[in-house]
Amino acid sequence: MSRSVLVTGGNRGIGLAIARAFADAGDKVAFTYRSGEPPTELLDLGCLAVKCDITDPEQVEQAYKEIEEKQGAVEVLVANAGVTRDQLLLRMSEEDFTSVVETNLTGTFRVVKRASKGMLRARKGRVVLISSVVGLMGSAGQANYAASKAGLVGFARSLSRELGSRNITVNVVAPGFVDTDMTRVLSDEQRAGIVANVPLGRYAQPEEIAASVRFLASEDAAYITGAVVPVDGGLGMGH
């Protein structure tokens, strides 16, 4: 059954892999991007590209109106859009902190709140939030990012209690280090140091994150809500 799916931040990395996975499965997929040009590989799959900065409430509203007009109310929401502005605490500015929280946490609040309207009317829905292993175990120089990603866990679990009676599930996927453009800028020494702490001894592929997201959005996961699913090669086990 083809569903209306929205993936925020779907233009690269993990988000692109998630959008592609849903499109390959036959779903109608819309994805947001903030700047640049949308990837042709998603456009070729028939995905709907919607330019939207999730820190702007008006842009979020317009994005939903366009999606609803072209592919129907959102039935599956994957809140993936996020940013980093790494800095040690004593050097971290107010803007470094608030801009990351505004995108990663408050922006997610906006897109989930708007999607929930249609889901409540339909009495069904799937929401998957993309957090991070950093939000569970912390990381020096990433207090802002870790706080925003940890906040998603409390947000999801509160919503799972609030929306569960309407057959709406809300879950979290917490990726570890993933082989994307963001991590490829690291030096070979930095990459080796990270992998040394991962029990499986490698980075994740974006498609492995996408597979877990698709599972949580499937009928097979109908009785799973409020869960945090780590896809981190064992890096954050125990958290």
How would you describe what is shown here?
With 239 residues, the protein is of the alpha/beta class. It has a single domain, classed as NAD(P)-binding Rossmann-like Domain (Rossmann fold). Helix content is 46%, strand content 15%. It contains nine helices and seven strands; from the N terminus they run E-H-E-H-E-H-E-H-E-H-H-E-H-H-H-E. Strands 3-2-1-4-5-6-7 form a seven-stranded parallel β-sheet, sandwiched between helices. Helix 2 links the parallel strand 2 and strand 3. Helix 3 runs parallel beside helix 4 and helix 4 packs parallel to helix 6. The chain is globular and about 50 Å long.
Describe the structure concisely for a colleague:
Pfam families: adh_short_C2 (PF13561). With 239 residues, the protein is α/β, with parallel strands linked by helices.
Write the layout of secondary structure elements.
Layout: E1 4-7, H1 13-24, E2 28-33, H2 40-44, E3 48-51, H3 57-71, E4 76-79, H4 94-122, E5 125-130, H5 134-137, H6 143-163, E6 168-175, H7 181-184, H8 188-195, H9 206-216, E7 228-231
Parallel strand pairs: 1-2, 1-4, 2-3, 4-5, 5-6, 6-7
Helix pairs in contact: 1-9, 3-4, 4-6
Distance between the termini: 36 Å
Considering DSSP H and I runs of 4 or more, what fraction of the residues is helical?
40-55%
- The sequence of SSEs as H and E is EHEHEHEHEHHEHHHE
Estimate the global geometry from the Cα principal axes.
globular
- CATH class identity: Alpha Beta
Based on CA atoms alone, the radius of gyration comes out at 17 Å
Number of strands: 7
* Structural class by SSE content: alpha/beta
CATH architecture: 3-Layer(aba) Sandwich
Strand percentage: 15-25%
The overall pLDDT, averaged over residues, is 95
Uncertain residue segments:
none
CATH T-level fold name: Rossmann fold
Count of discrete alpha- or pi-helical segments spanning 4 or more residues: 9
